Amino acid sequence: MTTVIAVIVVFGVLVAWHELGHFFVAKSFGMRVNEYSLGFGPSLFKHKWGETQYALRIIPLGGYVRLAGMEGDKTEDPREFPNRPLWQRFLVVLAGPFMNLVLAVILYAVAFGPVGIPTATTTIQQALPHYPAYEAGIRPGDKIVKIDHTRITNWEELASAITSHQKHIDVSVIRHGRLHTYGMKTRYDKALHRYVVGIKPTVVTVHVNPLQAIHDGVIQTVQLTGSWFGALFRLVEGRGPFDLTGPVGIAELVSSAAQSGFVNLLVLSAALSANLGLFNILPIPVLDGSRLFFLIVEGIRHKAMDADRENMIHFVGFVILMALVIVVTFHDVEHLFHA
């Protein structure tokens, strides 16, 4: 039940935040917003405050903001979306994906700061019996500071130094303030497919100050964005796999993260938010990216595309996108049954 709630909350927050971007920017420019809706299908709840109807619908796989004038016949009402300046319409559409990136930064910052990230240290929590480290004399509480002549400052460096050696290594540790060095041979672990010595690290929760957390959140989001576009370019060039995860696959990821701890769920939600924003700027009909593309074309031509034609393009795009979702979902379900 907890994982089901986690899936619904994560999906709901990501979509709600995305749509709030469109909503707030449109409202700030004085546009009339007819509806703010979370989900699709029949409504579970709806209420009209002012000129906007707010609705919660039965299928929690999306949402939308319905701006006056985006559908149907165009009028002369200056508050309708098509009658606003081009730059305002562009910013309204861009606000959704942009807010997802902002949310990613916020969630990463919360994870790095107040929540804290569990981090493996070079202090030994356990030396496994009958493994090289234990037999050589390594014990819990020892802090590894050097492998051979290489200084070690974190667990990643330690693991890399061990796996890069296939024979004998000298491990230097601090024990009760004194330096000790132990020689041992690494052992190949067939299950892990790497060389090990049989040690487990002490894990501590690392917190950073708020400014550092925001800085790290921005860096993490920028790096994720760069990796995302890099994977997209490799796919377009035919050098990368076509590997999409649908709602079922994402729900499985959220479920696993929820079971492994709140911080993992928080970090995954940040990554999903960034991916949602980046996916939405692709120029695929029905996504925000296609609307941005049409607005750029309008700016070049100094003439908007016929509304009926644009709506038809978005409808066809929606059908294709739903077909793609069904195919990806089938693949995700098939993967679950064969896992």
Automatic annotation (TrEMBL):
Enzyme class: hydrolase
GO CC term, one of those recorded: membrane
UniProt keyword list: Hydrolase, Membrane, Metal-binding, Metalloprotease, Protease, Transmembrane, Transmembrane helix, Zinc
Signal sequence bounds: none
Main location: membrane
Taxonomic superkingdom: Bacteria
GO MF assignments: metal ion binding; metalloendopeptidase activity
The protein's required cofactors: Zn(2+)
Gene Ontology BP term (one): proteolysis
Membrane topology qualifier: Multi-pass membrane protein
EC number: 3.4.24.-
InterPro entries per UniProt: PDZ, PDZ_6, PDZ_sf, Pept_M50_Zn, Peptidase_M50
Location relative to the cell: Membrane
Ranges annotated as spanning the membrane: 6-25, 90-111, 262-282, 311-330
Domain PDZ: 104-177
NCBIfam families listed in its UniProt record: RIP metalloprotease RseP (TIGR00054)
PANTHER family tied to this protein: MEMBRANE METALLOPROTEASE ARASP2, CHLOROPLASTIC-RELATED, REGULATOR OF SIGMA-E PROTEASE RSEP
Family: Belongs to the peptidase M50B family.
Name of the protein described by the UniProt record: Zinc metalloprotease
Gene assigned in the entry: rseP
